[in-house]
Amino acid sequence: MQVETSRLLLRSWRDSDRGPFHALNSDPVVMEFLPKLLTREESDAMIDRHQERILAGDYGFWAMEERESGAFLGFAGLFRPLFEAPFTLCAEVGWRLARAHWGKGFATEAGRAALALGFARGLEEVLSFTVPANRRSEAVMQRLGMRRNSAEDFEHPRLPIGHPLRRHMLYRISRASFVPPNRALGT
Length: 187
Ligand SMILES: CC(C)(COP(=O)(O)OP(=O)(O)OC[C@H]1O[C@@H](n2cnc3c(N)ncnc32)[C@H](O)[C@@H]1OP(=O)(O)O)[C@@H](O)C(=O)NCCC(=O)NCCS
Prior knowledge:
- The chain is 26% helix and 24% strand.
- With 187 residues, it is α+β, with helices and mostly antiparallel strands.
- Strands 1, 2, 3, 4, 5, 6, 7, 8 and 9 form a nine-stranded mixed beta sheet that branches.
- Coenzyme A binds at residues 30, 33, 95-97, 102-108, 130, 134, 136-137, 140.
């Protein structure tokens, strides 16, 4: 299955995505707030993990393509976190774009479509999390109408104690508070 928005196609992964996906996963600016740059093998394994979930009918991050140009932009979508925390029986919404495609509203457009799909499929709530320094990602969450309760900030269990990226903020949105996309306005 795939999802179309005004400007984007959110689809399952293709072999031709592997090169450009590794390029963004090895860009230090894109990866500034993520634990490490990925090798080609790690980047490919990430594609495989998400594709497996998508093909199984579960949530996995989709490859994101610009409809007009067919360009591969990055990923976005819903996912069930693999680590354990009090809130991880949930779906998260996430995004990662090649730097050339920042500043165009693509992450927000994709995030809104992902939330619409998740809520239509029966999710009651969707979460998102990032480090406080990742202002761009936090701004996407806020544009989507997600809210943070700072009492829920948490230490990411996948990172060692003392790691500078360990502290995360948690944002939430409920089905009731979600404003669905409006294709007429191009959102
Ligand atoms: C997080 C990330 C996806 C955000 O990308 P982004 O381009 O800032 O976010 P959007 O795609 O929603 O674009 C919003 C920007 O586009 C602008 N914009 C231009 N045209 C627009 C349109 N048609 N609709 C909405 N916004 C538009 C907005 O004004 C905003 O600009 P600003 O940042 O100058 O305020 C990107 O920085 C990224 O990939 N980072 C690296 C990976 C990462 O950290 N992922 C999150 C891990 S938790």
